[in-house]
Amino acid sequence: MTKLLLWAGLIVPWFSLFFMKRQDVKRFMPATLLAMLIMAMISEAAYTFNWWVIQEYIVPWGYITLTSLLFGPFLVGSLWIFRLSYHKWWLFFLTNLIIDSIFAFGLSPWFLDGWLYTMRRINNAGAFLLMFGTAIVIYLYQRWQDEVMVGASSENRGLEFTVGNPFRSREKGKS
Q: Which of 92, 97, 93, 94 is nearest to 82 (CA)?
């Protein structure tokens, strides 16, 4: 039964993306993938330093990274948080503060700890700081990503990189 719930946790959240605009998925996916990479690296550190031990997993390498949470609710949830709250920085951070708090201080100690994993050398406050720190990094990354893409699209060049002649004036009429 546990494996079935883990598989459902991996697959079911993806169906919610049918309700998100394709351009929003494309816009926020790079920051979401960065968040997943950061969380995967945190999971590697957690395995090495015995921060927590994963007890139930659905893939052979799942004892290091809790695949069903990372590739299911975390990935899809990150996309939805960006979609619904990114337009105002304070709303984004408030949303992450609330959701990370619910996970770290509500779900984790009362439902997940002991069932999916056991906390060892890190407490729930440490887990919260890791999650909220990741939110700060991905928000800053998305801001940078938006600036790069807006600059590229405003010139109607996509991601084209050009090297101009440094001896020619950029303005017409000047020599």
A: 92
Specify the pTM.
0.80
Burial 96-126 (b: 16+ CB within 10 A, else e): beebbeebbeeebeeebbeebbebeebebee
The three-state secondary structure class of 153 is: helix
β partners of residue 52: 119
Give 174: exposed, middle or buried? Use CB within 10 Å, 0-12, 13-18, 19+. Answer: exposed
pLDDT in tens, 46-68: 999 999 999 888 998 888 998 99
The dihedral through the CA atoms of 94, 97, 100, 103 has a sign that is negative
DSSP three-state, residue 25: helix
